[in-house]
Every structure is written in C-alpha cells, then in structure tokens.
Amino acid sequence: MNLQNDFNKLDSKIQEVFENWDNKILPHLPQQMDEMAKRTGALHRKRGVCSCVDLLRMLFLYASSNVSFRILSAAACALGISTISDTAWRKRFSKAAPFLREILHSLLSAFLPAADISAFDGVKNVLLADASVIRQNGKQQQQQRIHLCYSLNENRMKQVKVSDQHTAESLAHFSMKKGDLVLADAGYGTAQNFIYAQEQGADVLLRITPKNFCLYDAHGEKISLTALMKEAEEKHMEWIDGFGYCKYKGKTGFVRIIAHRLPDGQAAKARKRKTRKASKNQRRIQAETLFSAGWITVVTSLGAEYSGEEILHLYRSRWQVELLFKRFKQNFSIHTIKAGSSTYAETETLLWLIIWTIAERQSFQAECCLEEKRECSYSVYEKCKITFIQVTDILRLSWSLFVDLTDKKYTRYLSKKQRWRINHNDEFHSVVLPGLLN
Questions:
Q1: For FRET with 233, which of 35, 270, 279, 426 sits at 20 to 30 Å CA-CA?
Q2: For 356-370, what is each residue's pLDDT tens digit?
Q3: Residue 327: DSSP 8-state
Q4: How far does Cα 261 stand from its chain's mean position?
Q5: Who's near 29: CB < 8 A, 6+ residues apart?
Q6: Where are the domains positioned within the chain?
Q7: CA 121, CA 147: separation in Å to the nearest integer?
Q8: Cα–Cα separations (whole angstroms), residue 308 to 18, 125, 311, 313
Q9: Model confidence over 255-301: pLDDT tens digits?
Q10: Would you say the pTM of this structure is higher than 0.85?
Q11: CB 347 within 8 A of CB 97
C-alpha cells in the first residue's frame, strides 16, 4: 500500500474543494479583507490561522454545517488549515463580529451597480425599513433582531444592523438623506421616528396605530383619530385626508394623516387577525383597537401634490421587504440559531446574512442572464432556494471526507472529556457490545 500516493490524492481533492470555493465564493467578497481583518483585530495573531480567507472558510463551514467547535477544529486539521484547539476557535469566533460587520456592509454597497436615479427628475429614492427576529435555541429563547433597509429603486439591500432583543425597531438605525422616501409599518409609526426622518431631510410614510400616535391641531389640542374614523363611518365616508402636528421632546413635525376604510371582507379578516394575536398573547383586545383594524391609517410628510390613493398605493410596495425576509427565513430554513452569548449570536447572525447576500446576488445574476437570452424566468422562491443550497454545499468544503478517525492526530480534538458521573455509553461499548458481536 503506497501511503504517499494516497496522501497526494487526498491533497489534490482538498485543493479541488478550495478552488471551487475560490471560484464561487471569493469573487463576491471584498478585496480589502486583509485590511479589514487587521483593523478589526480578527487576525491580530496569525499563529494557527494564516489568512483571513482561511478564517472565513472555517467560519462559513461552522455556520452552514451545524457542528460543534470540537468538530470544527478537527475539520480544520483535516483540511490543512490549522491545528488549533476548539477553545481557540471559540475565541476567534467571538472576536469575528466587527470583521464580519465590515464585510457585510462592503457587500451591500457593492451588491449591484447603483442606479442612476438622478436621471429621473422628481423621482424619490424609496427606502423600505423593517425588522425581523431570529430566536436562539434553549429555554431562555433569546432573540437577535435584524434591522434592514431595502432600496426599492435600486432593488437591493442598502443597510443591515444586528442587535439583541432589547433594541426596538427605529429609523435611527439607518442613515438617510434629502430625496429619500422612507416607508415602514406600524412598528415604526411613532412621532419620534417621523421627526427623526424629517431632521435627516428625508420624506416619510409610516403606518400607525391610531391610539399610539398622538396628533395635535394648530392650537395644541389633541385630535382623536378614532373619533374621526367613527364620524366618517357614520357619514359613509371611505377616506379621511387631513393635517396636524406631532410632538416629541419639544420638537414638532407637520403631519399629513390619511385613513382608508377597508372593504367589509378585508376588515373582518383584519379584526380576526387582531383577535387571534391578542388571544395568543393572553390579553384582552380593546374595542378601540378592534374598530381601528377596519381602517388602514398612515402618516406622511408628502404634500397635497400626491393624492391619498397614490400614497396608499406607494405604501403597499413596502411588501417587497416582507418577501425578502420570507425568502431568508422560509426558503433558507433559518428560524433559530444556537444558544450563546450576545457576541456569539451576533457573529452567527452576521455569517448567515453574508451567506444570504451572496445567494441573493447569484440568484439576481441568473435572472439577468435569463432576461438577456429572452427566456422565461423561474419562480423567485425556488430559484433562491436552489442558489442557497449551491452556496452552502460549497461552504461546507466536503470536510468529512478528509477525516480519518483512526489517525492519532485527531485525538486532541475528539478525545472523551473527563466527567464526574459514570459514562453508560462507555460501559455499553466495553461490556455489552462485544458480547453482541461475538
């Protein structure tokens, strides 16, 4: 048996796996990664892991393979990347969040060529803001909240921020400028968010819950939105279009309020959803909330040059960001992550967001290719699902094929830990199993 030939064959297969990674994944990553790694301290000591590319290979492998750090250290040894322990990998993982954050922001800025919106005189840059939650496994059910800003004009993710469950939805997580129009759901429908967007020079369109948004007239008297809607319903009016003011910490914003009564069928469904949600949260739903569910109410800084119908039609485009999150969680089957510290959870969430961005980019490139050939396009969900599977298969590096459990070099990674109580598994293998095999 020629051991040298077997080693050469194994080494050539590893190189083939690495080349596939370099051809399919590396082109999507920023070129200045070494500078990012040095600046963020991800590779302040190169002992064990020599380059940021090798570090990313193992981090992606960990996220996409659902393995422990002990197995990760064995995989790194089998692939010839490093011989450091599982504890060392755990430390590198916990320190990788700033590095991954810079990579993600770089990917988002170069995701697609920026659209030249200056060519469209009077057209605003529409930004869709939303947030979604990923839960951690375990009894405590800690959460990571992903805050996302999506450009409707440029058809790409613009800004992403990851926080813990104690950080609420807010437009303050995003930067905006003059000429932007920010759309967000009722989770952002507060005077604080409305005034913040105006201070940045951007227009805003927010859905609100009438009882949670205080509106005032020119004399500072509070206006009851619910009373206005009840009066409009008595008069068989379907639209309310008025103006007022909102206040937050001594600051005042001029508000246009638009409310549209839903058709009876849609109103009944909306009230049923509200009732079901209240029952799930074990609380009694108020009559005012149940009545308001039959109306869609928004506030905006847009003037009278836009009709109420146009503004509500524009607001419905916010659903695009909901579909984006749906692809992330449903098609990619990302609903929970492993339990761990807030730093650990942020690192794993950032890894999944980077993988998601790469898959979305490859899916978009495939769609552009089909359009150039003038061929039929595929379903968005199936196309994104296949792209994600392709990306994760490459990221896993087929590492298990290169592990020889009879090789003593894996002892330091996979040896049994000393435990204070009897290991019944050892007793089974040493006493019972030999008798069954004889």
A1: 279
A2: 888 888 887 787 787
A3: I
A4: 33
A5: 56, 103, 107
A6: 3-102+341-414, 123-331
A7: 30
A8: 56, 20, 5, 9
A9: 999 999 989 898 899 888 888 888 888 888 888 888 888 889 999 99
A10: no
A11: yes
Burial zone of 23 (CB within 10 Å; 0-12 exposed, 13-18 middle, 19+ buried): exposed
Q: Do 59 and 135 meet the contact criterion of CB atoms below 8 Å apart?
A: no
* Residue with tokens 């098609």, as numbered in its chain: 331
Let me know: does 244 contact 255? Beta carbons within 8 Å.
Answer: yes
Q: Six-digit token pair at 220? A: 């500072």
3-state secondary structure of 169: coil
* Cα separation of the two ends of the chain: 30
Nearest to 314 by CA among 294, 293, 298: 298
Residues in the chain: 438
- Tell whether the torsion through CA atoms of 265, 266, 267 and 268 is positive or negative: positive
Here the contacts of 122-126 (C-beta below 8 Å, separation 24 or greater) are 123/153, 124/179, 124/180, 124/181, 124/203, 125/151, 125/153, 125/154, 125/179, 125/180, 125/181, 126/151, 126/152, 126/153, 126/180, 126/181, 126/183, 126/314, 126/317
Amino acid at the residue 399: W
